Amino acid sequence: xxxxxxxxxxxxxHRARVAGSVLYSDIGKAYYAKFGWQPNASNWxxxxxxMKIPKTSxxxxxxEDDLGELCRRDEAIIRDVMAKPTGGVKKIVTILPDLxxxxxxxxxxxxxxxxxxxxxxxxxxxIAGLPGHQAWGIWIHRYYAHPNxxxxxxxxxxxxxxxxxxxxxxxxxxxxxxxxRRQTQEKQVDSLLAVLHRAQAExxxxxxxxxxxWEPTPWVQDVIAKSNVxxxxxxxxxxxxxxxxxxxxxxxxxxxxxxxxxHLPVGEGKIAAMVQQEIxxxx
Length: 283
What we know:
The chain is α+β, with helices and mostly antiparallel strands. Helices cover 28% and strands 23% of the residues. The chain has six helices and 13 strands. The chain has helices spanning 2-8, 30-33, 67-82, 99-117, 182-205, 218-226; strands at 20-25, 38-39, 44-48, 59-62, 91-93, 125-128, 135-142, 155-163, 210-214, 232-235, 241-246, 271-275, 279-281. α5 links the parallel β8 and β9. The protein is globular and about 55 Å long.
């Protein structure tokens, strides 16, 4: 790992300066930290049970053909937020949730579901509300064991949850605001809950044991806490520990990535991404 840290510093350096590397550890926080990949301050997720409930018209399915436009909209929101100075924050890192990223996960999902069930899920997520007040979630079906195994632990992961107008999104956790303009909040609450309920119904339909959402925004946390949605908070200490190695101009390191499940293009415990371009410096 020590040699890898040195090699990554100059990886494809003819294209752009390498800013850093993100990996997710499945062996706790200490091992990779010895080589420069410092664990993120928080590694937690919300976990929801599957529910056999009717799929209402409040939320509609996101199909694969819808993903390109939603990813473009999401990226525009992220870039707009990251382009604005945030007091006291020098560096912030995110890995863009682009279409290529999502399709990697979906290809893995398609292979697994075809092997298990002889078919693929049509729904790649759910969306609710009118433009400007919409909420949507993009998800994948992840099977770690056959659904009929003795103790399966299969998961519907919400890779990306977007709520239009959520001013607490896409910011460092210490700087996140918690709120909407009061007159628009109710619309987004209904849309968010409709998407979550659709995810729980999808998990039940595909014999998944949990729905997991990594580190939602403060506003989303607040809405869920005040709702009648059944959930629990899980602090991860050993698996999927977000860790970042950040190169300064002299090859030293330091950083704080935003932590989402979709950040794993090559699987837990592997190097997730070379962070080269999606860096914003604030002064």
